[in-house]
Design a protein that fits this description.
The protein is an alpha+beta fold. It is built from 14 helices and 32 strands. Helix content is about 30%, strand content about 30%. Strands 3, 4, 19, 20, 28, 29, 30 and 31 form an 8-stranded mixed sheet that branches. Strands 10, 13, 15, 16, 24, 25, 26 and 27 form an 8-stranded mixed sheet that branches. Strands 1, 2, 5, 6, 7, 8 and 9 form a 7-stranded antiparallel sheet that branches.
């Protein structure tokens, strides 16, 4: 029998009337090992102390709604092979039996139930409010509104350019005339004086000179005014046809995990998430938005500020939502091990332990092994789909990389009507892909030529504009047909702009090739998802065996074949365990697979 010791707030206690088993459930992988205790009874001074602790909320204490620290140590006293951090949950089914006897549920700290309950209990907006998430955590994603102008808009552009250009040319010609007038007025008139000592004299028509000069100055001023009007009109046309670049804030996916772990005092370990957060490959989630980038929404008070955290209506509103969503996207799973939150592709946790399953039978009465197959996991159609954003026509017009399908069919059939390849695995990603602006449209090229001329003119006047630079800076932005985002988007950033080959980096086919292919029943690169299954096998089991399996469920059968324990329930009082396991063994290869 294993030695089990109980500690309440680091004080050794002796509870009554409890049954303890330790379950290791790798089918869900939330926690390598969990203690199963419905409740314990504490009596005497221990029961009286906990009773007072529960009622302390009436006298300035924490009361019912804060758990009491509890720890269980398994195996050797003073040097336990495993220590389980738990807590007494006074808010869930606490019973007062007498003045000095109390019954209270025991729950695991950082276990599966704890994570599901706690990770759903706070939002990312709350983390921002209390300062766990700061402005520096946000990524500014540039975006531009794009659409095809109609004929009227193009006509206005052409007519405006023609009229103003014509007016400018005519006034430049008029300047030439004014210069000629000034030249004529400034030409001296030669004559002969009269009277004694008559001779040749030269005179100037000062009035004509002044008049001609004023006309020239007025003409030049008019030209300057026309140039200014042209630039202003061009700016208005650009703003209508090509609204200025704006920015929506989002958060890198890895940072969503990191900040929640920071709040929960967990370390984060994930090579999967690390691969999404490199210098030229930063995956950023833009939450739903109901305002123009950088502008305060109508009706918002003065405390409003631009944020990149998920909104209340997003599936990623809470940490639990982030975990559930990205488990699905990346075919991943998680585990909490000694205060570290591990998030990896689901096969990451398959680490060989060297443990050998004893040679017993799962049907010990008949002394044979009953086994089955995981045919219930087969899906003839495996589809991965990105969502479209009804507010953004780009996600509807550009479907590149948004869908992938692996279709399985039999190689050989005798009775096609009895073919039993069935089932659909639909991986619906609740985000839209971003569309990167890779170049200028024909309208933007036309406008660029126009504004380049405007830049040249204003440069001659000593006040150069940079309108052409504004046009070029649109390249690398996110394309959107609306300022609003109803479906959160995922983009890959490289510096301050979207990375090249945006759709290829986030493609549904890429998700299959990197994460989901391991679910295929047909072998791909020597990997397949076919298993022989064995359930309910009773085996001898002790502390040494238990510690071998703390971090992995990968074992061997007595024949030396690799196996994977799905569930193990250890009866610590009787040194035995009931296990269910499976062996990755090919049992059918009558498949063809087509990628669509």
């Amino acid at each position: 029998m294993a030695d089990i010791r109980h500690y309440r707030d680091n004080q050794l206690v002796n509870p009554r009337d409890f049954k303890i088993k330790i379950r290791m459930d790798w089918s869900n992988r939330q926690e390598a090992a969990q203690v199963l205790i419905d409740s314990i009874r504490l009596v005497g001074q221990e029961g009286e102390a906990l009773r007072k602790r529960a009622l302390s909320g009436l006298t300035g204490g924490v009361g019912f709604f804060e758990g009491e620290p509890y720890r269980l140590e398994v195996c050797e006293a003073g040097d336990p092979l495993k220590s389980f951090e738990a807590f007494l949950d006074l808010s869930d089914g606490l019973k007062f039996i007498s003045d000095c006897e109390i019954e209270v549920p025991v729950k695991m700290k950082q276990g599966n139930d704890w994570l599901n309950e706690v990770a759903d209990s706070f939002s990312y907006r709350y983390l921002e409010e209390i300062g766990v998430i700061k402005d520096k955590d946000f990524s500014s994603v540039p975006y531009v509104i794009n659409y095809i102008p109609d004929g009227t808009q193009l006509l206005i552009l052409a007519l405006s350019a023609f009229v103003l250009t014509k007016e400018l040319i005519e006034n430049i010609q008029a300047v030439s005339d004014r210069i000629s007038d000034l030249t004529d007025a400034a030409t001296p008139v030669t004559g002969v004086s009269v009277g004694l000592g008559a001779g040749v004299v030269t005179s100037y028509d000062i009035g004509n000179i002044i008049m001609a000069a004023l006309k020239l100055i007025a003409q030049l001023a008019y030209i300057v005014a026309i140039v200014i009007a042209i630039v202003q009109l061009i700016e208005q046309i650009i703003e209508q046809l090509m609204p200025p670049k704006r920015f929506h804030k989002g958060m890198p996916i890895r940072l969503l995990f990191q900040r929640a772990c920071d709040y929960l005092n967990l370390e984060l370990s994930s090579s999967l998430l690390d691969s999404l957060d490199t210098t030229g490959n930063k995956w950023v989630l833009i939450p739903s938005k109901r305002h123009r980038g950088g502008e305060k929404p109508t009706g918002a008070d003065n405390t409003w500020r631009e944020t990149g955290v998920p909104s209340a209506n997003d599936v990623t509103n809470t940490f639990a939502g982030v975990i559930r969503t990205f488990k699905r996207v990346f075919n991943a799973d998680f585990q909490i091990d000694n205060g570290t939150f591990i998030f990896e592709r689901r096969d990451f946790f398959e680490r060989n332990t060297g443990y050998v399953i004893p040679d017993t039978f799962n049907n010990q009465e008949q002394r044979w092994d009953e086994f089955g197959f995981n045919t219930d996991e087969f899906r003839a159609n495996y589809a991965i789909n990105w969502t479209t954003d009804r507010q953004d026509l780009n996600t509807l017009d550009n479907l590149e990389g948004s869908f992938f399908q692996a279709q399985f069919s039999p190689k050989v059939t005798i009775n096609p009507e009895l073919t039993n390849l069935k089932g659909l695995e639909q991986v619906d990603i609740p985000f839209a892909q971003g569309v990167r602006k890779d170049g200028l449209t024909f309208v933007e090229e036309a406008v660029k030529a126009l504004v380049s001329a405007a830049d040249a003119i204003t440069g001659q006047l000593g006040q150069p504009s940079s309108l052409s630079g504004q046009v070029n800076s649109r390249i690398g932005s996110l394309l959107s047909s609306s300022h609003f985002i109803t479906t959160p988007k995922i983009v890959v950033m490289a510096g301050n702009n979207l990375a090249l080959d945006q759709r290829a980096k986030t493609s549904a086919a890429g998700l299959w090739e990197n994460y989901h292919f391991i679910n295929s029943f047909k072998p791909i690169n020597g990997i397949h998802n076919q298993y022989y299954t064995f359930e309910g096998q009773i085996i001898p089991f002790c502390c040494d065996d238990f510690v071998k399996l703390l971090n992995s469920n990968q074992v061997e059968t007595s024949e030396g074949e690799p196996a994977e324990i799905q569930e193990l329930e250890w009866d610590v009082w009787n040194n035995s365990a009931v296990i269910s396991y499976r062996v990755n063994r090919l049992y059918d290869n009558n498949f063809d697979i087509e990628f669509l």
